[in-house]
Amino acid sequence: MAVAALIVAIVDDDDGLRRALSSLLRAEGMAVRAFESAEAFLAASAMEMPDAVLTDIQMPGMSGLDLQDRLSRLHPGLPVLVMTALPDRPLRERALSSGAVTVLDKPIDADLLLARLQGLANRGED
């Protein structure tokens, strides 16, 4: 599966970041579904399941880590990439030990994000 074929859900309460990431991924040919909260993502049950979820850790309401935990039960194997502006090692370790593909620091390094998504696309070709 080429990276352009990926469907990525972006879950972040920061509208500007959601828009910027959506533009970046669309420019690479990916389909993007953007959500302002974990609850909004979970409520969109009629949408096509994404190939990956990119979520912020700290959001009002359900956190990105809680979303990751829920997704691991509802959709085992769905890759979750976690973003954070917090230099909190225990949060990072929790995300990774719970199965996050990666933890990305904000501001997001576009090349690193695209490389991680390319890795997911390549894994899907196996």
TrEMBL record:
Tell me which UniProt keywords the record has, alphabetically: Phosphoprotein
Domain Response regulatory, chain residue ranges per copy:
7-121
Q: Does the keyword Thylakoid apply?
A: no
**A Gene Ontology biological process annotation?**
phosphorelay signal transduction system
Q: Source species, please?
A: Zavarzinia aquatilis
Modified residue annotations for 4-aspartylphosphate:
D56
Q: What is this protein called?
A: Two-component system response regulator
Q: Provide the organism lineage as a comma list.
A: Bacteria, Pseudomonadati, Pseudomonadota, Alphaproteobacteria, Rhodospirillales
Keyword rRNA-binding included in the entry's annotation = no
